[in-house]
Amino acid sequence: MSAKDNGVPSGQSAKQDQLDQFRSDATDQPMTTNMGLKVNDAGNSLKAGIRGGTLLEDFWLREKINHFDHERIPERIVHARGSAAHGVFELYEAIPQFTKAGIFNDVGRKTPVFTRFSTVAGSKGSPDLARDVRGFAVKFYTEEGVWDLVGNDIPVFFIQDAMKFPDLIHSVKPEPDREIPQAQSAHDTFYDWVSLTPEALHNHIWVMSDRGIPRSLRMMQGFGIHTFRMINDEGVAHFVRFHWNPVQGTHSVTWDEAVKINGADPDFHRRDLWDAIDAGQFPEWELGLQIIPEEDEHKFDFDLLDATKLIPEEMVPLQVVGKMTLNRNPDNFFAETEQVAFLPTHLVPGLDFSNDPLLQGRLFSYRDTQLSRLGSVNFEQIPINRTLAPNHNDQRDGHMQMSVPKGKTAYFPNTLGGGCPFLTSQKEGAFESYTERIDGNKIRARSESFVDYYSQPALFYRSLTDWEKAHTADAYTFELGKCTYPHVQKRMLYQISQIDEALAQQVAEGLGLEVPDSVDGPVNQAISADADVEKMQPPKKKIYLDKSDALSLTFRMGSKGIATRQIAVLAADGFDAEDFTAMTDKLKAENAVVKIVAPHGGTITCSKGHDHEVFSGIMMTESVLFDAVYIPGGKKSVDALLKKAKYKKFVDEAFMHCKAIAVDGEGIQLLKATHVGEYMDDDKAVFVDGKPQAFVDAIAQHRNYDRMEVAKMVPA
């Protein structure tokens, strides 16, 4: 049948035929390189020995990562949605016994930093409150050069080897045939991949917990993820992991809040960070180190080179050595936040890498990505990326060259340039890689010491409080409920059951499914076609630690202050001036942010005839954007609030989300008109007749999770 007979214009049909030449279908086809070379392993890089460094000759790793790094122009493929700020790092105590790095030995220094936070999966236009891992990258402009500590807000990663990073991101990104969903892991391709790749389960359960939806970028931890090395003046090395702990504590929002915040203010995190710094409430993090002597490398029940494993603080306590303060917002988002380039290869003397196969792949990938995204080998000359240390070498020219190198020579060694720039020794401050003996066969495989996939996610889940466990089960139920393939759901339920049977049962009940006793095929399919399949299957979980309090948000509340907490004051004309002043003076003295939510914008008048500026009319804001609610007395004011149904919804939502609520005088009538009235007499975070100090103390606790079961009965 001709195109004309088929009702398709001939020109359109010809174009379709042209496009068809480039279509491909991988069904029933073996995996190959782009040159058609068949491959037997898509999950392991080529190493010098089973636990050795990754080899530069691994053309398959470089092809796969190189292609992935260049998939987007110019937006970052991952971590596209970001916010950043300038600041300083100050050292508490010198640690020359561990490292010769100047940043860890000069207590008088104030090292400038630029820190960027980000979501991972979404595009630049995605909302801030997606359930996701958050990037936490710090650029230190040290006197010896730039050091980039590039990590996340979760201490472990999804994968163990960089070879699998494109697969991870391809699975979680919008499905390629329909380009949905955006910034969500709740879909078939992601859970198909996770259910076949149990090494991802540890990071994944963190994301399914409340850690996946932080209250603020200022209230989340940061981690270097990998095991690095510190080297002292004697050349002695120690392994180290880096932790950032927020002084304000580690806090989250509920999933119901996150969904509503994304609709009410998709820039919630970005705005919160900017406003806090703009108001002089500078966020702070303390830097803690877990330091392990090299001779203790193999003393743990897990492998230090495995980025999917954390080191419990009960086993290796944190040594807090300094503090980072973010004190200045960027002057231009594009020039700074968008163009900043973080590279794990940016090191200073006294720091070095380990053979972590995920880290080894990142050492190649990040530079390759910046070449694509910023369009030039000279991206390090962009002002936000420039080092403060003197910069001299024989590199020349290139697209967007912004320096003007002088002289006749651009090679080494030379005599015409006086032998300059000249080499310096390690004693003179030059960087030298740590001397490590490597003796092993060239091999594309993974160490059997990496195969325990269930013990640490089980430890994490055991360490959660009941309300955290409930939220985690709800998250799994929601996410798997979005999957449309029953075999994917069932396989994932089996994997969850290996972490915790009760958790899997709770999720299965929500899905209307049974937890399977087994799965078809190997549990772990992220292995070589030539591997010993049995050896690479995960064993049953081990319990080498009953629980770790450091893993639970309940024990990470931080300082008990309420600085920067957003307090909604529900009021209208005629509100009681004395009660209002007593409460808000106390809140402001604690550096909380007090905002009047009135029936309209502009101003309202208190009982003493004074005008007060309104932050927002009730129809222009939402309860989820605030940390607590206060209702002053005044009959005229409260009567006006009772005429607006949204005020009742506002209070109900605050109660449902376990927030502190305080009322004075006639304000109790609004409480009685809501579902809160049924329970307020027994609730330790609902205060009648003000009680400013008690209200402040309740806000500092972040939530009253004792209310959670009652709050479920309040309509959303």
TrEMBL record:
* Cofactor(s) required, per the database record: heme
Name of the protein in its database record: Catalase
Residues of the region (Disordered) are 1-38
State the top-level EC class.
oxidoreductase
Q: What does this protein do?
A: Decomposes hydrogen peroxide into water and oxygen; serves to protect cells from the toxic effects of hydrogen peroxide.
Molecular function in Gene Ontology: catalase activity; heme binding; metal ion binding
Q: Where is the composition biased (Basic and acidic residues)?
A: 17-26
Ranges where the Catalase core domain occurs: 32-420
Q: Which Gene3D superfamilies match?
A: 1.20.1370.20, 3.40.50.880, Catalase core domain (2.40.180.10)
Q: Tell me which SMART domains the record gives.
A: Catalase
UniProt cross-references to InterPro entries, sorted A to Z? Catalase, Catalase_AS, Catalase_clade2, Catalase_clade2_helical, Catalase_core, Catalase_haem_BS, Catalase_immune_responsive, Catalase_large_C
Q: Give the originating organism.
A: Neolewinella xylanilytica
Q: Where does heme bind?
A: R76, R116, F165, R362, Y366, R373
Q: Which family is annotated?
A: Belongs to the catalase family. HPII subfamily.
Name the catalytic site residues. Answer: H79, N152
